[in-house]
Amino acid sequence: MRRWTPGGYGTINGEPGDPATCPSCRGAGTVPRELEKQLVALVPYGDQRLKPRHTKRYVSLAVLGCLLLAGLTFFFLSPRSIQAQLTGLTVSASAGAGAVILNVTKTLEIANGNLYPTVVTALDMEVLHLQLVVGQHTDRRPLYIGPLGRAQKNFTVVSEITDRNTCNICSWTKIKVHHVLLFLQGNVTCNSLGRAQQVAFQSTQYVDCRGHAPTPQPP
Fold first, then answer.
1. What share of the chain is helix, strand, coil (3-state, %, to 5)?
2. Alpha carbon distance 156, 102 (integer Å)
3. CATH says 82-208 is which class?
4. pLDDT per residue over 12-41, tens digit each?
5. DSSP character string of 95-121
6. Which residues cross the membrane (predicted)?
7. How many CB atoms neighbour CB 209 within 10 A?
8. 95 burial via Cβ count (<10 Å: 0-12, 13-18, 19+)
């Protein structure tokens, strides 16, 4: 190995006047800026820069962070139940010889069990008497319900009963009891995070077909 001398800076052998100049710096002693991105530096295999510290720690923290984020996302976005229940009742009736007209007003209470809001986009309701549909109601007005919130929808269903025996019960003044049994059923359509869900509900109710106060629900 030859001894390096200041005069040989920029040459391969390190001697002044050596015709074999360094190909990287071209004899200038420094690498030109235009060649900085084209040249490759050789680093020994045992160099500490090739062995970054705390690699396992960083990888473990990244994996735990991803698992925690996935768990929280699943917990908050996991679908929960939406419940609908009929409450309250107001009836106005008009009984004639050929038909009984009942204006049944009910309140539908909707409870959102999700941790995100939902929108009730549709309400479909029907009233049955003696297994026959005597009234229907449809409501397309949207109703917003916040996370873990509750909301109510009031609606009126006009029902027409043409059964002869029922008309006689409701119109005869000699009969003191004018109760008829109605079966109410329907469903609401809820939209949560772009996903539609239908929730069914039903109720059985005795009503006074002469328009008096409603009687308690049957067991």
1. 20, 40, 40
2. 10
3. mainly beta
4. 454 555 555 666 666 666 767 777 777 777
5. E-SS-EEEEEEEEEEEEE-SSS-EEEE
6. 58-77
7. 24
8. buried
Q: Which amino acid is at 19?
A: P
Beta strands in the chain (DSSP E): 82-95, 100-112, 118-129, 132-139, 143-145, 150-161, 179-192, 195-208
* CA 98 – CA 100 distance, rounded (Å): 7
Look-up of token digits 């308690």: 216
Strand, helix or coil for residue 11: strand
Domain positions in the chain? 47-78, 82-208
Residues of the chain with pLDDT under 50: 1-12, 14, 213-219
Token pair for residue 150?
A: 């509750």
Q: Note the pLDDT tens digit of each residue in 184-210.
A: 999 999 998 888 999 999 999 888 887
- List C-alpha distances in Å: 5 to 15, 18, 24, 31: 7, 12, 19, 19
